[in-house]
Design a protein that fits this description.
By secondary structure, the protein is mainly alpha-helical. It folds into two domains: 46 residues, Arc Repressor Mutant, subunit A (Orthogonal Bundle), CATH 1.10.10; 116 residues. It is 70% helix and 0% strand. The protein is built from ten helices and no strands. It is elongated and about 55 Å long. The model has no long low-confidence stretch (mean pLDDT 87). One of its GO terms (molecular function) is DNA binding. This is TetR family transcriptional regulator. Keywords: DNA-binding.
């Protein structure tokens, strides 16, 4: 079912105002009252769409990750050419780049666990290419591989990318032999 155009415009307005506010102050300092005032809506309208400020923030992060990962066109390589997939993925989706290009990424007390969101979305995208049957066992295998990649990436800097590619590609080959 298509979402009502009024809902789309209202949510777009709320998100836009939230991004502007996040450029000026941390999420902990933003109130629903302030956001509603800037967005020219009442608080009830805000609460109709979001449970609180952090719910909105989580949606902003998810939207950003969806837009970033959604533009990738090499998911099948995860299964067929893991080395190539990993090199492209690590190049295209570096956490440092996210922090630079994602103006409202917050590392404060309410920072979201970025690798978790990347892992969840990547799992869905990889399973959607239908290279392997969408079973619980295969989802667990893919998730284990992705988690190893995102966790390694969050613990090691760029200089270790070759090692991450080498180790993770062996893991993928082992999990999905051709």
């Amino acid at each position: 079912m298509k979402e009502d155009l009024r809902v789309i415009k209202t949510k777009r307005n709320i998100k836009s105002v939230m991004m502007d506010l996040l450029k000026k102050k941390p999420i902990e300092k933003i109130t629903v009252t302030e956001l509603a005032s800037h967005a020219l809506i009442n608080k009830g309208t805000f609460y109709h769409h979001y449970s609180d400020i952090y719910d909105l923030y989580q949606e902003l992060v998810s939207d950003f990750i969806e837009n970033t990962i959604g533009s990738l066109n090499y998911y099948e390589e995860f299964f067929t050419e893991p080395e190539s997939f990993l090199q492209k993925f690590l190049h295209d989706f570096r956490e440092n780049d996210i922090k630079k290009t994602f103006p409202f990424f917050n590392e404060g007390t309410h920072s979201l666990f970025l690798p978790y969101y990347v892992t969840e979305l990547l799992l869905d995208r990889l399973m959607s290419v239908n290279y392997v049957e969408n079973t619980i066992e295969n989802r667990v295998r893919v998730q284990c591989c992705i988690t190893a990649i995102t966790a390694s990436k969050s613990h090691f800097d760029e200089s270790y990318n070759n090692i991450i590619v080498q180790v993770a590609s062996k893991m993928i080959h082992s999990a999905f032999p051709q």
